[in-house]
Known about the structure:
With about 325 residues, this protein is an alpha/beta fold. Helix content is about 35%, strand content about 15%. The protein has 13 helices and ten strands. The strands form three sheets. It has a four-stranded parallel beta sheet, with helices on both faces. Helix 6 packs antiparallel against helix 7 and helix 7 packs parallel to helix 13. It is elongated.
Amino acid sequence: MQRRSAGFYSAGFAVVALVAAGCGSATTDTPPATTSATASSGEFPKSIASGSDGGTVTIDAVPETIVSLSPTATETLFAVGAGEQVAAVDDQSDYPADAPMTGLSAFTPSLEAIVAYDPDLVITSTDLGIVTSTLAEAGVPTLLLPAATSIDDAYSQIELVADATGHDAEGDALVTQMRNRIDDAVASVPTRPEPLTYFHELDDTLYTVTSQSFVGQIYGLFGLQSIADGSDAGDYPQLSAETVITADPDVVFLADAQCCGVTSESVSARPGWGSMTAVRDDRIFPMDEDLSSRWGPRIADQAEAVAAVVQQIPA
Length: 315
């Protein structure tokens, strides 16, 4: 696993998602042979909302050659049935396993490398100054889908990707399925007179999330409250060890177990942490770092993982 830089977390959820690390297949910069589109619904041309400024992108026909520069977009494309239309994904897109991972970088995007795939649609979650404007000049429709700020925002992005690729019905069905799974997960946990408090560890320098962050909103569905609430450092603040110990969280979630090898044993061994309720009661839980940092179809998996933890704690 590639170690994440804590600074990225404080910069915002979009960068957090892009640096989510994972083991993938060997990469290549050679464009693979493209496949024909298998879209099943939707009429073209159509205009699709892009970015947070109210702009739109016009897509003239069903995209047959898609390049994804976002792990979340990659997961969404395959989940709505557009996988066969995807020609290349960036070097952080490690799910699903059969996604055509390449050496394309979303951090330092190369126009030449992207255009080499002759795409008729590019999807990215961040615009580093050249992607959308330069590709537009080259006549390539580009969807900018920044980090979702709420679960409803994530649903909307899934539907946008589905619409843009000709899989309108599949997108609607996926969102309905996700809503039902999340509702079932929430209903499976006991009601508590007082909320459980938690510390969600992004890395071992103690960057964390507030209840207003995207993943914090998922925790909030289960009545969980972040000990970082009230921080003046945004939704992804860095706490001191003293602050965490004093706050005495009921639960500790580790989103740095895969990338950084942090374990419940290593957390328990930190100076002073043995006095915390979460440590004394053995409530330290490793969480899948990709589920915790992406806002695509697997947020239902994240909700179910949180439910499984909360179910273990007596009301």
